[in-house]
Specification:
The complex is a heterodimer of chains A (about 475) and B (about 475). Chain A has about 475 residues and is α+β, with helices and mostly antiparallel strands. Chain A has 15 helices and 17 strands. Chain B is an alpha/beta fold and about 475 residues long. The chains are: A alpha+beta (about 475), B alpha/beta (about 475).
């Protein structure tokens, strides 16, 4: 029997704000334990929450970027449960009125080849709501300690519809969602720092069946690749169980990305009763059209939209755009270089190939690059004008990367300017070359076009490498035609 | 006859301090001595930091000497109910759960009192986590009523009312969730004001029921209540439910507002269960206002019969969640020998909370449970809206409502062992909290046995100035507030 997988993802994204969602104490990662705390975070007697507007702005922005319907009122509920990482033993969250409803994440599946665009799909979202993160438990041999630094960090829960059907789709979904959050300035989405966390709900069903099969929740998927591998593994496991005549149980499983093994954490969740009710400490906040309009104006162009525009406006090929558009700074770098006069395709090539390669080798982020858009634009313009030859350009780029000097200055310093080749001089070099290579001449005349290369080496040698290969070729052909 | 220093009002003391006939240090010493003399019998204090109070008094004297007196509360000792945070002082909520807890921060009202020059002194007994009407639910033992030590002072702010009535402090703060300022004020013969919900910040008040709690003053006179309210009221960025209201000079407004007013008498507040002596005293107060030219009109608050049920659903639901933080993990009582995390919660809470607190947590947990939420909590919120509308409708015809504060005067310690009988003490005060309105209790007589009786005036939202003026008019014509218990 053929089975189809049905996958829904619950993604938690920490919002990057200066302070926590309900208090003024700072939010951040990597601080000494329990230093980002105050009476509110520690839930001391009498402490009260006050909403951080920046967190609400961020989720509204996320909703606008993903095409969600934005709730007219931000309403807060308490989710009551006892756990030591939750200082109040209730979490302030949004229950029946999430801030964002609907919307979708656009994804691209792998193409037939690396240089071929894959299929695009829109994965529909169920909801996005805002809540507060909890603290972190650290277990030791004799006891457990709690670090409340993370507690109260603004957190979005983004819930997709069960609308994905493969591990690849889930991978593409997370890649796109993550880029959207980073583009929007909403989160850095560093999974190692827990800024993006993902749980996957996976079931399988015979192809053609419309009802859902038994759902398994996969937890602790702490990198996007592990999400893909974990889901692929789980789908295989479920098919194996059903194919062997077994039955699946509703359970939560833990996937270990290192070993590629999953194991059951608990079967069918204990029916939690969170006793949700509206938080009486927080007034509902009205979100009007002007508020949304201001945030909409701040929304950046998303990667796929950018890619379509780059293809359309600059005729930059997919292989290049697919590198440029996923990094907002890189895409901006590209556009700035083009604005400064660089020919788009050449600019794209230099950035996607040379700049990224050099940055990678030097382990530098783009922000630390000494090569700026003006350098690339200048370089491309020099090549275009014939002032700089391609081989020499590589050398110029390496020097710019190391020093940050402008390309023209590097060219002058290193004496790499293409010789202002005198037509007569070039013709003389070419005549000399032809005269010195009788065999090549005979071959060429016999119709062997590649024989022309036999003359070029001599010309270049005579020109000390400063002749434009294109012009050398033209001149040789003109002379040969007359022989 | 001039009253003892410790029975003088803030206004009288303020005049003496300003005239330099009295220093804050002398006043503080007098009050400390009075406490030492009588609190063994009244038991209004959970603790007090005398050295700290004397240091504050010295600082106050220094300010005054430098011409930098901060206002009408400069040098006045003010006691706080032990549910209001003071940095560096215990905050027990009269619970074993917090018996050893010291607050690292000040409540906003504490900050405001200090800014106004007051000496913040003493942690006053109350029902555990403000849950009760007699102060018998304190983990540290009950407070006695200074008028009859065999009787309760009311509650939950019983320590705040009793300490004031006994002359152990010059003014106090209490908190009122269902009558917890007004009822003990009535039973102890002092003035108690529950402000409009949102007028006074709740930041630093150990929460009982967030949508009902409000901090307010207990004082000897209405003018003192005006001074205290002026000091503590105002918007607080630490409390999302605090209101951005203009705060008038309540003391100055007392003279500007002379009436006559239209006063409503809600017929539902004069039914069965009302003690005849209380009823008679309130009738006389009505007669006084009528004689002053006020219009007296009977009104109806038809949903009054649902107040108690509605209150005990909403208040307990919120309490069950608010008190979840007391788990023995970060602070507070931690049980020894727990097997695991869950056991640690269970044992710490079983040991740390008293029976009334547990009863309310269980009730509140139940009404919020899946499958019961709609039938209880949601419905109670709807009824709450109807109750508020009753009041707002009445205010189309009248400026304020006049009722007894408590159906009965102070009862004997241990007399009401049935929780439901105790809940009935609040039938005239609870509606005000559900509706979020301001209300004030002031002395209006004594029973034949010599127990104080309280008159309640219920005002319109954020119209405390009117409410205080009405009460002031009555107080000016009566001398109940000049009488003190003999201890």
């Amino acid at each position: 029997m053929n089975y189809e997988a049905v996958i829904g993802l619950e993604v938690h994204v920490q919002i990057r704000t200066n302070s926590k969602v309900f208090s003024r104490v700072g939010a951040g990662y990597g601080h000494p334990e329990n230093t980002l705390t105050d009476p509110v975070v520690l839930a001391l007697p009498g402490a009260l929450p006050v909403m951080n507007k920046a967190a609400l702005d961020a989720i509204i922005k996320a909703g606008l970027l993903l095409g969600c319907e934005i709730a007219p009122v931000c309403k807060w509920d308490r989710k009551n449960y006892f756990y030591p990482d939750s200082p109040k033993n209730y979490q302030i969250s949004q229950y029946d009125q999430p801030m964002c409803l609907g919307g979708a994440v656009e994804i691209e599946l792998p193409g037939a080849a690396r240089n071929v665009m894959g299929e695009h799909k829109k994965i529909p979202l169920m909801r996005i709501h805002l809540e507060e993160d909890v603290g972190k438990l650290n277990h030791f041999a004799a006891d457990s300690l709690v670090d409340y630094n993370r507690a109260g960090t603004p957190l979005m829960e983004i819930v997709s519809e069960p609308a994905m059907h493969s591990a690849e789709e889930a991978f593409a979904y997370l890649t796109s969602l993550r880029a959207t959050m980073i583009f929007g300035g909403i989160s850095d989405c560093d999974m190692e720092k827990g800024q993006l966390r993902c749980d996957a709900n996976i079931s399988i069903r015979p192809v053609g069946q419309t009802t859902l099969g038994t759902k398994v929740e996969l937890k602790n998927l702490n990198s996007i690749s592990f999400v893909r591998d974990g889901i692929a593994h789980e789908i295989k496991r479920q098919i194996a169980v059903l194919s062997a005549g077994g039955t699946l149980v509703q359970e939560t499983r833990d996937y270990d990305g290192q070993t590629g093994i999953s194991q059951s954490l608990r079967s069918k969740e204990m029916a939690h009763d969170y006793r949700y009710f509206p938080d009486p400490d927080l007034m509902p906040v009205k979100v009007d059209e002007a508020w949304k309009a201001n945030l909409r104006a701040e929304c950046p162009e998303l990667p796929f939209d950018k890619q379509r525009r780059f293809l359309d406006k600059y005729a930059v090929p997919y292989t290049i755009t697919s590198v440029l558009v996923w990094d907002r700074a890189l895409a901006d770098f590209f556009e700035e270089a083009v604005r400064l006069g660089g020919k788009p395709q050449a600019v794209g090539n230099w950035i996607a190939n040379d700049l990224l390669r050099e940055l990678g080798a030097a382990k530098l982020p783009l922000a630390k690059s000494k090569v700026m858009p003006a350098h690339v634009a200048g370089l491309v313009t020099l090549i275009e004008a014939g002032t700089l030859l391609p081989n020499a350009a590589k050398e110029v780029f390496a020097e710019m990367f190391a020093t940050g000097d402008q390309p023209a200055a590097v060219v002058e310093r290193k004496g790499l300017r293409a010789a202002p080749v005198d037509v007569g001089e070039l013709e003389q070099w070419c005549r000399d070359a032809i005269a010195a290579n009788a065999k090549s001449l005979a071959d060429f005349k016999a119709g062997k076009d590649s024989a022309i290369n036999g003359f070029k080496g001599s010309v270049m040698k005579a020109a000390k490498g400063k002749a434009d290969p294109k012009r050398v070729d033209e001149t040789l052909r003109k002379l040969l035609a007359g022989m | 006859m001039a009253a003892e220093l410790f029975f003088k009002s803030i206004e009288e003391l303020g005049a003496l301090l300003e005239a330099k006939q009295l220093s804050a240090t002398e006043l503080m010493r007098t009050v400390i001595a009075r406490r030492q003399a009588v609190d063994g019998r009244v038991k209004a204090f959970n603790s007090s930091d005398d050295a700290d109070a004397l240091a504050q008094a010295a600082a106050s004297d220094a300010r005054r000497a430098a011409g930098q007196a901060r206002g009408p509360l400069e040098g006045i000792p003010v006691g706080l109910k032990d549910v209001i945070a003071v940095a560096g002082q215990p905050l027990t909520a009269s619970s074993k759960m917090l018996a050893n807890f010291v607050s690292p921060y000040d409540a906003t009202v504490t900050v405001n009192l200090k800014k106004a020059g007051a000496i913040v002194w003493g942690r006053l007994n109350c029902d555990e986590f403000a849950m009760g009407s007699s102060t018998e639910n304190s983990a540290f033992g009950p407070t006695a009523n200074p008028w009859d030590l065999a009787r309760v002072p009311g509650g939950s702010s019983g320590g705040s009312a009793a300490a004031l009535a006994a002359g152990e402090v010059c003014a106090t703060l209490g908190s009122d969730t269902g009558g917890s300022i007004r009822q003990p004020a009535a039973l102890c013969g002092v003035v108690g004001l529950k402000p409009t919900y949102g007028l006074v910040s709740r930041y630093g008040l150990a929460a009982f029921a967030s949508s009902l709690d409000q901090i307010g003053p207990l004082t000897r006179t209405v003018a003192d209540a005006a001074l205290m309210l002026g000091a503590i009221a105002g918007h607080d960025p630490h409390d999302s439910t605090s209101f951005k209201a203009e705060i008038p000079d309540y003391r100055a407004e007392l003279k500007k507002r002379q009436g006559p007013w239209r006063l409503g008498i809600p017929k539902e507040y004069f039914g069965a269960g009302l003690d005849p002596a209380v009823g008679a005293a309130v009738e006389q107060a009505i007669a006084f206002y009528r004689a002053q030219g006020c219009t007296i009109k009977e009104v109806s608050l038809p949903h009054t019969q649902f107040c108690l049920d509605t209150y005990y659903i909403i208040a307990t639901a919120e309490a069950s969640s608010n008190l979840a933080r007391y788990d023995g993990i970060r602070y507070g009582h931690r049980a020894k020998g727990a097997k695991d995390g869950v056991d640690l919660y269970a044992q710490s809470r079983a040991e740390g909370f008293g029976p009334e607190v547990k009863r309310r947590i269980i009730l509140g947990t139940y009404v919020l449970s899946s499958g019961y939420y709609d039938a209880y909590y949601l419905r109670a919120q709807k009824v709450r809206t109807l109750i508020r509308q009753d009041f707002l409708k009445a205010y189309h015809e009248v400026d304020a409502l006049l009722t007894p504060t408590s159906p009965m005067p102070a009862f004997r310690l241990g007399e009401k062992s049935d929780p439901l009988a105790l809940y009935l003490c609040d039938i005239y005060t609870i509606g005000v909290n559900l509706a979020g309105l301001p209300a004030l209790s002031l002395p209006c007589g004594f029973t034949p046995a010599g127990l104080p009786i309280g008159l309640q005036l219920i005002g319109q939202p954020f119209r405390e100035a009117d409410l205080l003026a009405m009460a002031h008019t009555y107080e000016q014509a009566h001398d109940w507030h000049t009488k003190h218990p003999s201890l």
